């Protein structure tokens, strides 16, 4: 890759999150300025997963090796097909930066895997593709996550912290001129799991949660469950092993469980905001639309919370993965050892040239 690339590039960010909401596409342009980066989301779209893809991705961990790698290719082909449709009436980007969909994340054993073959995406779109952003960091002893904080630091520096209310709630902020970041608790993974029991993909506006009553025993069990877990990067394996049994074993109503989980998450988030004296918080992710959850977070928080425009709420992660691709192409650090626990920063991502 030519190291003398233009400072202004257009990159398509592709993101699939742990809550299985769908595939996020964000066509972004980035411009290197003297001491900062400018950016704009030119176009964006979420492609909802149909029932078949939801089930396939949710059950990918059960596949044997041959079927797993077949899915790795097929999902890459699916991503490429959706990209080609998305870009049909848009300008072709310089590159694609694809996160893939996480199936296994066990950095303590030295591996993390995201399906959605980058080579397949590059071949089927004819566009240079960057993928596999986590493995190098894991090889250096890190958690391979979180990756978004470098984008928080360089693109959203006007806020003292960035809180993402996604499948997993996570936060990043500067402390003593060093970026710190970690997962706080499971969030939409649990709320969506419960909403599906009521026949809905998610609890719109927190309506079901607001109609329930908190259950003190369930709240105590949730609070104790992850007290000693590694919070740098929570994984679906932990959710299925720890949280789902607690929710299933509780005899209270689903509405009560939703209410309780929002209170639990609100307490966990509020503790972090208060402990680190954060005052100006940018909130993004699907949970930013859950009014009941937001009230739980704000109940004891004295600072300012900022809910941005819909595009930023929904596509901030895809935007930042596009930015990680931009940094990778320019041979600049895009993974911070200070937040992942790796022994050094990294320039991460496998590049498939076209």
Topology:
Elements: E1 8-16, E2 22-32, E3 37-48, H1 51-58, H2 65-86, E4 95-98, E5 101-106, E6 111-115, H3 118-125, E7 128-131, H4 135-139, H5 149-155, E8 161-165, E9 168-175, E10 178-186, H6 188-196, H7 207-211, H8 216-225, H9 236-249, H10 254-275, E11 280-284, H11 291-298, E12 304-306, H12 310-329, H13 337-340, E13 350-352
Parallel strand pairs: 1-4, 4-7, 8-11, 11-12
Antiparallel strand pairs: 1-2, 2-3, 5-6, 7-13, 8-9, 9-10
Structural class, judged by helices and strands? Answer: alpha/beta
CATH structural architecture of the largest domain: 2-Layer Sandwich
Mean pLDDT value: 93
> Which sequence of strands runs across the widest sheet?
3-2-1-4-7-13
- How many alpha or pi helices? 13
The N- and C-terminal alpha carbons lie at a distance of: 10 Å
Gyration radius from CA atoms, angstroms = 20 Å
> Which regions contain 5 or more consecutive residues with pLDDT less than 50?
none
Largest sheet: 6 strands, mixed
């Amino acid at each position: 890759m030519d190291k003398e690339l233009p400072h202004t590039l257009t990159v398509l960010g592709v993101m699939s999150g742990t809550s299985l909401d769908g595939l996020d596409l964000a066509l972004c342009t980035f411009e290197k300025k003297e001491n900062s980066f400018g950016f704009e989301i030119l176009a964006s779209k979420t492609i909802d997963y149909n029932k078949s893809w939801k089930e396939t991705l949710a059950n990918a961990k059960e596949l044997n090796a041959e079927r797993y790698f077949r899915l790795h290719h097929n999902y890459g082909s699916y991503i490429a097909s959706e990209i080609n449709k998305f870009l049909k009436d848009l300008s072709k980007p310089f590159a694609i930066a694809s996160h893939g969909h996480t199936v296994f994340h066990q950095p303590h054993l030295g591996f993390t895997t995201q399906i959605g073959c980058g080579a397949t995406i590059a071949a089927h779109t004819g566009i240079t593709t960057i993928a596999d952003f986590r493995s190098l960091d894991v090889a250096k002893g890190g958690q391979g996550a979180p990756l978004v904080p470098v984008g928080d630091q360089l693109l959203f520096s006007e806020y003292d912290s960035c809180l993402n209310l996604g499948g997993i709630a996570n936060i990043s902020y500067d402390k003593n001129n060093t970026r710190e970041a970690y997962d706080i608790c499971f969030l939409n993974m649990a709320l969506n799991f419960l909403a599906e029991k009521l026949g809905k993909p998610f609890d719109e506006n927190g309506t079901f949660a607001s109609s329930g009553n908190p259950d003190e025993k369930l709240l105590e069990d949730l609070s104790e469950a992850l007290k000693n877990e590694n919070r740098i990067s929570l994984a679906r394996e932990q959710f299925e092993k720890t949280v789902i049994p607690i929710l299933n074993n509780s005899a209270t109503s689903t509405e009560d469980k939703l209410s309780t989980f929002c209170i639990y998450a609100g307490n966990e988030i509020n503790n972090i905001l208060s402990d680190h004296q954060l005052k100006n918080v940018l909130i993004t992710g699907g949970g930013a639309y859950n009014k009941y959850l937001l009230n739980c977070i704000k109940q004891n928080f004295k600072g300012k919370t900022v809910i941005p425009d819909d595009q930023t709420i929904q596509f901030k992660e895809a935007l930042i993965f596009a930015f990680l691709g931009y940094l990778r192409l320019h041979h600049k650090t895009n993974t911070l050892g200070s937040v992942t626990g790796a022994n050094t920063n990294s320039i991460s991502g496998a590049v498939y040239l076209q």
